[in-house]
Design goal:
Radius of gyration: 20 Å
Shape: globular
CATH topology: Rossmann fold
Number of domains: 1
Number of helices: 12
Distance between the termini: 45 Å
Order of helices and strands: HEHEHHHHHEHEHHHEHEE
CATH class: Alpha Beta
Strand content: 5-15%
Structural class: alpha/beta
Largest sheet: 7 strands, mixed
Number of strands: 7
Length: 336
């Protein structure tokens, strides 16, 4: 069965909150251009596409950019060609595979050894065939591999660590993703604060990271699989040297958020927020608190605050008691 955009484990995913979020957006926002400036899984943008004519997505992870291009880009691709390739990959005789970069590093840790060999073999072949693939075809294959690998990964939903017990061997099946048709879309992999100076929109949706957990480190295995530069890896979790480190995960987060809001040219700003600042885990504690967000947004325009009890996707041992999800909707001063 083809992978849908929401069928992916991802810390902070809003997949289960979409009805609530868009009931409020439908009531309080108007316009044709929607920007998801920290797009994450892309599920918010996918839902926005059913309501807005022009969608703009942005995220600094290479894996997320490839996924957005695969699901959303208005670019030529041959589905039959890609399905044929996927069928060929699924017929590979794994007993004849030799170790490769992926299996040597991630086998018997994040994946069973034989599964890691197959994932590495498929990834290497995709790269070899890049010249005979359109960009959309290349990204569809990559995203199909990302989703299929993530489905069987020996983790609790991220790659900050793997489960110490030996991975259970389940047959790995490469399944295609199911692209979404959007009439007008722009896709970026940029610093959100820099992009904010260049885009104009009716509605800007903001769901930044709020705690010290860097998404580029949480999803380093998928980043490595996407970029395929085969870097040297370090530590028990087998991470490359840090890159794409977000200031929103540091003490500078309130200043960066304030800068972002000042830079935006739009009519409405919608901000998702959760109350992990009360978390028992220091790495889960928010770098921006609710009152700070409220004060920053109120300088930009009239702001309404909504909240909903929600079971947070907790990928570790942190206990979030009485977890609340908040949504801020700001009507920017001077907008119609």
């Amino acid at each position: 069965m083809p992978h849908k955009i929401e069928s992916r484990r991802y810390t902070g995913s809003k997949a289960k909150l979409l009805d609530w979020i868009f009931t409020l957006i439908d009531e309080y926002c108007r316009g044709e251009i929607f920007v998801d400036i920290f797009a994450g899984t892309g599920v918010v943008a996918a839902t926005a596409a059913t309501r807005f004519k022009h969608i703009i997505l942005n995220d600094f992870l290479y894996s997320n950019y490839a996924i957005y291009y695969a699901f959303f880009a208005k670019s030529p691709w041959d589905r039959a060609k890609i399905e044929k390739m996927i069928n060929q990959y699924n017929c590979i005789d794994t007993s004849k595979l030799k170790d490769n970069y992926f299996s040597k590093n991630f086998g018997d840790k994040y994946f069973p050894r034989i599964t890691a060999k197959l994932i590495g073999e498929i990834r290497e072949d995709i790269e070899k065939k890049k010249k005979v693939l359109t960009t959309k075809e290349y990204c569809v294959l990559l995203s199909s591999l990302i989703y299929s690998a993530d489905k069987v990964a020996n983790t609790v939903g991220h790659y900050d660590a793997y489960i110490r017990e030996k991975p259970t061997l389940n047959k790995f099946l490469l399944e295609i993703i199911n692209p979404i048709n959007i009439d007008m879309v722009n896709i970026y992999r940029e610093d959100a604060n820099l992009l904010a100076n260049r885009v104009k929109a009716d509605v800007v949706y903001i769901d930044p990271p709020y705690n010290s957990r860097q998404y580029s480190r949480f999803y380093h295995v998928l980043e490595t699989l996407t970029k395929w530069e085969k870097p040297k890896l370090y530590g028990v979790a087998l991470k490359p040297h840090p890159e794409n480190v977000s200031e929103y995960c540091k003490v500078a987060a309130p200043d960066k958020f304030s800068e972002l809001i000042r830079s935006l040219t739009c009519s409405y700003i919608v901000v998702s927020y959760n109350n992990t600042y009360n978390s028992k885990s220091s790495s889960s504690k928010n770098k921006i608190q609710l009152e700070q967000i409220k004060n920053i947004l109120e300088k930009k325009g009239s702001t309404k605050i909504f909240n909903k009890k929600h079971r947070y996707f907790n990928s570790g041992k942190t206990n979030f008691d009485d977890h609340q999800e908040y949504l801020f909707i700001t009507k920017v001063n001077g907008s119609k």
